[in-house]
Amino acid sequence: MKILICDDSTMIRRQLTNMIFELGDFEILEASNGSSAIDIYKENKPSLVFMDIIMPELDGIGAVNGIIAFDKMAKVVMLSSVGTKDNLSKALKAGAVDFIQKPVEADILERTIGKYCKEV
Amino acid sequence: MFTQFFGQFLLNNDLISAGELNIVFQSIKSTRLRLGMIAIDKGFLTPSQVVVINGLQKKHDKRFGEIAVEFGYLTEENLEIILNMQQSEHLKMAQTIVDLGYMTLEEFAEAMNTYKKQHGLSDESFDELKNGKVDEVIYNIIRTEDHVIKEYVTLFYKNIIRFITNDVYISEPEKLSGDEHYNYLFEQKIKGNQEIYTAYTANEKVLVLFSSKYAGETLEVINEFTIDVCKEFLNLHNGLFAVNMSDKDLKFDLEIQSHKENFAPVGDNLYKIPFHTDLGDICLILSM
Fold first, then answer.
1. Interface touch A82/B239, C-beta < 8 Å
2. Mean pLDDT across chain B, nearest whole number?
3. Which of B227, B240, B251 to mutate to test the interface with A (most CBs of A within 10 A)?
4. First vs last Cα of chain A: how many Å apart?
5. For residue B39, how far is the Cα from the chain centroid?
6. pLDDT single digits (tens) B97-147
7. What 3-state DSSP class applies to A34?
8. Which one is predicted more confidently, B202 or B22?
9. H or E element, residue A40
10. Which of A60, B107, B132, B230 would give a disulfide with A53, using CB separation of 3.0 to 4.6 Å?
11. Residue whose C-alpha is closest to residue A53's, from A39, A45, A65, A63
């Protein structure tokens, strides 16, 4: 099962990857900006996407729009430090299924993956 | 937190030397508070009653609390209160300083009163500080009427404690001259209800220690990853700030965080606020 992590921070991608490996046998795909996330999604159709908001080139909300335009059933969970009412509303409107506030806690990550990836 | 702020005050007012303060900080961790000290602080016992109880303890080979209740010096309720205060930071500091002979109990009490007056703290605010709530003290140090900036700096302080180290206190803001170059500076602009330039800097050694703490792994040099970690800390902090403001119906958006090398930030209203930590000094730079 594939999970795409899109975040411009190497540290966040590394930490999330380590946390997800603890939860099961997943294949992790990584993107450091929204445009790259759309390309990787189209090529790999991952079961779940964790998407940051503030990123260079194309931000997370733009990337959700791009992914949902390609696949209406895509499961994109926003994972950002900027969980403001405004961003929450924009993300859900764009088609994100959930929103996790950074710093991410292991049990919330586990619950979210369990909810959207049936094998866990 | 109280110990850092109050220790700095004692140092600034020549009530204790830097070397002595350092010894106090090191000794305080192993200090176990005596119940008599707490009972005096709470006004439940006088110093002479404590001496009497200590004498009775030797004769009866019982604990201080048991004797005090048995001989009617303390009620069960008051004993319960002082037992619950055994971790009190300010009392541990007082006892350590007095035991080391740097100040008398009276001098320490007088210094606390002066500190309260100098910082315009009510009894309630001072009690909050003693219990670890620093908001009022930080507001007094940064001396601005801007509530958004007050909350920003207080949250930065709390995030240093949450993610980096407990051992931190801050000094008053200083206006940036414009020709101060920093080897490494991490910056992010905040836009919305008001525009705020935010940045922080530290020397290389401190940044390596700082990023190691934040990333939860040992980093040894400044490289692409260390820089990424430092940028992400600012982004996380600013994100949490925007969320807090959003809860108050204030809208703030963040630009992408970046880093600069050998850079001098310029602006009429830029101030640096030093955060002194056990890792070294970290300087928050803000438009205010």
1. yes
2. 89
3. B240
4. 10
5. 26
6. 999 999 988 888 889 888 888 777 777 777 777 766 788 888 888 888 899
7. helix
8. B202
9. helix A34-44
10. A60
11. A63
CATH number assigned to the domain comprising residue A69 = 3.40.50.2300
| B11 touches A at CB < 8 Å | no
Measure the N-to-C terminal CA separation of chain B; round to a whole number of Å. Answer: 25
User: What is the tens place of the pLDDT at every residue in B167-184?
Assistant: 888 988 999 988 889 999
**Nearest CA among A118, A102, A109 for reference residue A21:** A109
CB of B229 less than 8 A from some CB of A: yes
Q: Which of B229, B239, B255 sits opposite A81 (nearest CB)?
A: B239
Task: Identify the structural domains of chain B with CATH numbers, from first to last.
Answer: 2-139 (no CATH), 147-287 (3.40.1550.10)
Distance, in Å, from the CA atom of A28 to the CA atom of B159, rounded to the nearest integer, reads: 30
Which domain range does residue A71 map to? Answer: 2-116
Pairwise CB contact (< 8 Å): A82 & B215: no
Place of tokens 């930065």: B156
Q: Are strands B280-287 and B270-277 parallel, antiparallel or unpaired?
A: antiparallel
Residues 6+ apart with CB under 8 A from B84: none
Q: Which of B232, B240, B253 sits opposite A9 (nearest CB)?
A: B232
Q: What is the ipTM of this complex?
A: 0.92
B92 — phi, psi (to 5°)? -60, -40
Which residues from B are below 8 Å from A86, CB to CB?
246, 251, 253
- Where residue A120 falls among pLDDT bands split at 50, 70, 90? very low
- In chain A, the number of structural domains is 1
Q: How far is A80 from chain B (nearest CA, A)?
A: 8
pLDDT at B1: 67
Which residues share a beta bridge with B186?
A: B200, B259
Q: Check residue B257 and report its DSSP letter.
A: P
Q: Which of B163, B229, B255 minimises the CB distance to A11? A: B229
Identify the closest residue of chain B to A59 by CA–CA distance.
B256
H-type alpha helices, chain B: 2-12, 18-28, 35-42, 47-60, 64-70, 76-84, 89-99, 105-118, 123-130, 135-142, 147-163, 204-215, 224-247
3-state SS record for B169-238: EECCCEECCCCCCEEEEEEEEEEECCCEEEEEECCHHHHHHHHHHHHCCCCCCCCHHHHHHHHHHHHHHH
